[in-house]
Write a structure and sequence with these properties.
The structure is a single chain. This protein has about 425 residues and is α+β, with helices and mostly antiparallel strands. The protein contains 14 helices and twelve strands. Helix 1 packs across helix 11 and helix 2 crosses helix 3. It starts with 8 loop residues before the first helix and ends with a helix. The relative contact order is 0.15.
Length: about 425
């Protein structure tokens, strides 16, 4: 049975895909906490979500806390179910899946918070940019929505990095990529990360997965592995050294290419070289892509290294540019959904609350794309806030606001006819089962 008589039918249809991840009771709690997280305009603590759902005087507070600290559900399984839903709903059949990996620090206070430590905080103040809290490695699927010009990153899975107590951030990301590739085994998966993400374990990724990252300026590259000579002794694993990136750029032949990145279409110079980055990827064949802006005086402006040896070079440049969408997702999850504001401290609660918030982010975009978008949304926003004179597309805060209004309307109208009937529920279940088959 679909839980709750006050949740809009359109949201329940999106939430239905997560049903196998929960028991009946925990699924009901999950649905209402999702609604409460969106409807809440104050702090999204656990009790704040309960208040946002309008259940603070109906359910005991312990029920909400126990959902994170005691209930039987797995955050990774939830994320992978959402990942499959995102791919089936928002990408064309058979299209490759672009995946962005990155990490972010959510500041916490208190010595008893599980997994909290001093770590790099990209948004921190000061020269050292350090912060105390939980560092999360996050994997997001990057999609293009029909009503937006820029790509959007939808977080699906996350792992808590605890310094020396866990694997490195790159290894955690690769573990999640392996899980995601298993769920999306019928698709090509292109993974992209910033310059901090590289490891020799990239060579162990499945055959249908490529990895692209930014190359450090001091990287030592060499020519591909030379053929065997037939002589006795151990064969060489790498060719001659290629020199510095500046030297490679100065000796290269450049091609003028049009690329779309960061919401703009621009001309850039591109050159590619097949090589080895033995220090990071060992003898895994890779491709170096150097990019120089049209009016730049530098030898090159961007250096990428990729295990994708077949895609056009401009695709790799655009792929890396789309990585920036995960940074926007980090901003929106903090500012618009309050992810990280929960004050729980135990291990299970800490390891589940942030993935739950990321799931709310993805569910919100899914709901808006499938059920909530209307061409007049931007006009309505500009009518209410006329200072947005150049606004032409909805932003994530607009999606949250519209879902919030829909939740409030369903709560006060209490229209049973708005709830899906048994036939609609069965049709949705059949559709998701067919998609997952």
């Amino acid at each position: 049975m679909v839980p709750g008589i006050t949740l809009p039918a359109s949201l329940l249809l999106v939430l239905r895909v997560t049903r196998p991840c929960f028991t009946k009771r925990s699924f009901e709690t999950f649905c209402h906490l999702v609604a409460g997280s969106v409807a809440q305009t104050g702090r999204r603590t656990v009790t704040g979500m309960l208040s946002g759902a309008g259940l603070a005087r109906v359910w005991p507070h312990r029920r909400a806390h126990a959902f994170f600290s005691e209930a039987s559900w797995d955050a990774d399984r939830l994320g992978l179910r959402l990942a499959r839903a995102v791919v089936e709903a928002l990408l064309p059949a058979g299209a490759p899946v672009l995946v962005a990996v990155d990490d972010t620090l959510l500041q916490r206070v208190g010595k008893k918070v599980f997994g909290a430590l001093w770590a790099h905080d990209g948004s921190g103040r000061g020269k050292d940019k350090l912060g105390f809290g939980n560092t999360w490695v996050i994997v997001a699927i990057v999609v293009r929505l029909p009503f937006l010009a820029r790509p959007v990153a939808l977080p699906v899975t996350a792992r808590l990095w605890r310094g020396r107590a866990t694997a490195s951030r790159t290894d955690l990301a690769l573990e999640m990529v392996h899980d995601l590739a298993a769920v999306l085994s019928d698709r090509m998966v292109h993974v992209v990360g910033d310059g901090a993400y590289h490891s020799e374990k990239v060579a162990g990724l499945p055959a249908g997965v490529t990895f692209t990252t930014r190359l450090p300026r001091n990287a030592a590259l060499s020519a591909p592995t030379p053929p065997r000579t037939g002589k006795r002794g151990r064969p060489r694993k790498k060719g001659a050294a290629l020199g510095s990136l500046t030297a490679i750029a100065q000796a290269a032949t450049w091609t003028l290419t049009v690329v779309e990145r960061y919401g703009r279409t621009e001309f850039v110079w591109i050159t590619t070289t097949e090589c080895l980055w033995y220090g990071a990827f060992k003898d895994l064949p890779v491709r170096l892509v150097l990019v120089r802006d049209l009016d730049s005086a530098k030898p090159y402006d961007l250096a990428l290294i990729s295990t994708d040896l077949h895609s056009p070079a401009d695709d790799l440049v655009e792929r890396y540019g789309a990585r920036w969408s995960i940074e926007l997702a980090f901003h929106h999850m903090r500012e618009d959904l309050g992810v990280g504001q929960a004050r729980n401290r135990t291990r299970r609660a800490v390891e589940r609350t942030v993935p739950f918030g990321l799931a709310v982010h993805t569910i919100t975009v899914l709901w808006y794309t499938l059920h909530g978008h209307h061409p007049a949304d931007v006009d309505d926003r500009r009518a209410r806030q006329p200072w947005y004179t150049t606004k032409t597309t909805p932003a994530f805060p607009d999606m949250v606001a519209k879902l919030r209004r829909t939740l409030i309307a369903a709560r006060h109208i209490r229209n049973p006819a708005a709830q899906p009937d048994s036939e609609e529920n069965a049709a949705v279940v059949r559709a998701w089962e067919a998609a997952a088959a």
